[in-house]
């Protein structure tokens, strides 16, 4: 028994030793030395800047510092270099926290993993990337988590809709890509989506297609219902008029045939009229359903058991457009160790969330109290103005009464 426990510990140590952290950034002091702001959009005056802050609510002001976008309506781009790696045969985990304390109305909040070969000093929306992952919010319609993979030069967006968080607090976003071509997306360490890469992205041509040479057989019957051949039109059916004279109508007593013409009763709908006759419908015994061409193997389909694979991963960065700035990004992690990523998530986001929420709730209460006080003050001022206005209206009346008394005395 002891030998088995020792063996398990040995293999656990081997697994732990083989796990690699490719990049980790908690944005402590000196973070600027690792990150390169892009010159993209600077000449146009539309480049934003990242500032180092914990924001307006936090658990620990120093420990919870990240990089925040500002000012509004700007493009943002910043990147850091990793030790180049390939994820062949390994899990790949990309994780970070995002806090939209400005209540983001339109803008991105995603991270990118990029290959080498690009000038990261000019990092832009055109810079090639391997993976783009994170929340994107714009208006009412777009509130989703982007998971985009580059495959043979084409950026492919997931076919699933993964809803992102839209409040003003920090949330942990985790993407796991496994060497068996499966994936998971977690938010706050809770699984929100998972599945097969080939099924949920258009990496490959479809494995099967409709046979282009197939045609519908001439005797294929697509009619679910048919006329009942035994249903016969009743005799005299077509003789029933649509309108008849109102049997309850009476000729008015003052009706003069010579002056008014011959009186005729008004016409009304005939309750016995049934419209045009048609035989009743019955189930078609020969119905075969709607015809579809049979599926055949797609000659253009080429299987790929390495859809997950990116041989060259060298940079990590944020490249965003935000109408309303103020998003804070923190706790960036790129690793092949799923357990370590979960541990880091709990030690960072997990440790801050309760204190941050308490500070946010307190700020909201103070804000509501201040707004209520302002409304009360405004109401008091309104009432005061109304009272003053009523007093001003009474004075001319008194003057008019005095003038009337003077006139009466003179008379």
Automatic annotation (TrEMBL):
Disulfide-bonded cysteines: 106-138
Protein name stated in the entry: Calreticulin
InterPro entries in the record: Calret/calnex, Calret/calnex_CS, Calreticulin, Calreticulin/calnexin_P_dom_sf, ConA-like_dom_sf
Alphabetized GO MF terms: calcium ion binding; carbohydrate binding; unfolded protein binding
Alphabetical list of Pfam families matching this protein: Calreticulin
Keyword terms: Calcium, Chaperone, Disulfide bond, Endoplasmic reticulum, Lectin, Metal-binding, Repeat, Signal, Zinc
Compartment annotation: Endoplasmic reticulum lumen
Basic and acidic residues bias locations: 208-252, 355-386
GO terms, biological process: ERAD pathway; protein folding
Region listing for Disordered, in residue ranges: 204-262, 355-411
Keyword Metal-binding carried by entry: yes
Signal peptide as annotated in the record: 1-19
Keyword Metal-binding found: yes
The protein's role, per its UniProt record: Molecular calcium-binding chaperone promoting folding, oligomeric assembly and quality control in the ER via the calreticulin/calnexin cycle. This lectin may interact transiently with almost all of the monoglucosylated glycoproteins that are synthesized in the ER.
Compositional bias ranges of the Acidic residues kind: 253-262, 387-411
